[in-house]
Amino acid sequence: MKLRKDFLWGGATAANQFEGGYLEGGRGLSINDVHKGGNVSTPRVIHETIHEGDYYPSHEGVDFYHRYKEDIALLAEMGFKCFRMSIAWSRIFPNGDNPEPNEEGLQFYDNVFDELLKYGIEPVVTLSHYETPLALVKNYGSWRNRKMIQFFQNYCRVVFERYKGKVKYWMTFNEINCILGNENPYLQAGINFKEGENRIDVKLQASHYMMVASALAVADCHRIDPEAKIGCMLLYPTTYPATCAPIDQVMTRDAMAMTYYFGDVFVRGRYTNTCTAYQEKTGGHFTMEPGDEKILKEGTVDYIAFSYYSSKIEGARVTEFTGGNMMRGGKNPYLETSDWGWQTDPIGLRMALNQLYDRYQIPLFIAENGLGAVDQVEADGSIIDDYRIDYLARHIQAFKDAVEKDHVDLMGYTPWGPIDIVSAGTGEMKKRYGFIYVDKDDEGNGTLNRSRKKSFYWYKKVIASNGDDLENKKGEREE
User: Span of the secretion signal (predicted)?
Assistant: First the structure.
């Protein structure tokens, strides 16, 4: 068994880290527009309003809003088959609850999709990628409030109708399971906890509303455009028991329950025993209205998309921890780590694919994967990022093994940040993932000029060979 001939090779971005143009084209403010920049040692701060003189990376991103034709031409040069991006909800409905959509915003994405399709690149669109309109947070408490379901459904119906025939692949909420895994689910759900608030109850209620909203979006997508496919998107934290002690196996299962809590509802259309056990274990409660069960049952997804960067360990005696994408975990002594402390584990990606496919038996999509690193621009302008090529080559081989040896059904692969973009976690630019370098620093200075890294030419070769040619000539510049 080989990769599909129509395998979707590409890359992934999010509007809040990439697009910019935050006050242009009638766009309203989103939650990221008040998320101050930071770095690995200085956590990002969330403000209620924009503070004069502070730096907010989302305001400019890397200016895709004005440079989308140039950027898409570079993606096409690499041979991209698809491009995962998000629509900024507040560009379509500036306050989230507007009676009519913003035509300028709709036209902007028409232009972007048309440009992609001109080169034969399929748009893969995330409906909500940390993009909640700020007005919905201020006026309704965001996803604490059931009214959000209707606002989201209105938004989804508008974009499904508008882009029917242009967008064949949709995802609902980015890394939705981080609501339960994060202490403060601001990015995922627009929620900052209030004094004395029962946090687990708020998380479970917000999760329920978002899963109902997702199910309605799936049903509407299928009704409006029967040819389209729509999936969920999870962060997948492959987790190993720290030892062979039985308790470590139980703790590992419990650690994965936050992921399967959402996967079970999205795919099976109901709260399973895993979900009920998680609710009881946490002591959390939420309310479900009549009709919700039917909505969940009728709105199951077509595929599972997920992000995978690193793995972790779990056990009763784990004392050393390491960083990771939104969720920290126990440090595995058998793995190397990146400059930001994330553990590199290609086999963990193969495990993730097998675990998800064994459990759900529907197509999978690797929506994010990559290495954040500091890149050095040489005197001649070249960037020799062999470390990135090595990371990606090993992960591509791992998912090929999952397909070819384990018979997993995999639709596509979109490594994170094919063009350097702002880090969601730290707000930095120096944590770079891209095949394309962007001249911008952590304070927002730079020309924003684009240049090709060595990995650009390598990934072009990988795509052209449908993953068969992963060879890298170390240290040499490719042209």
Answer: none
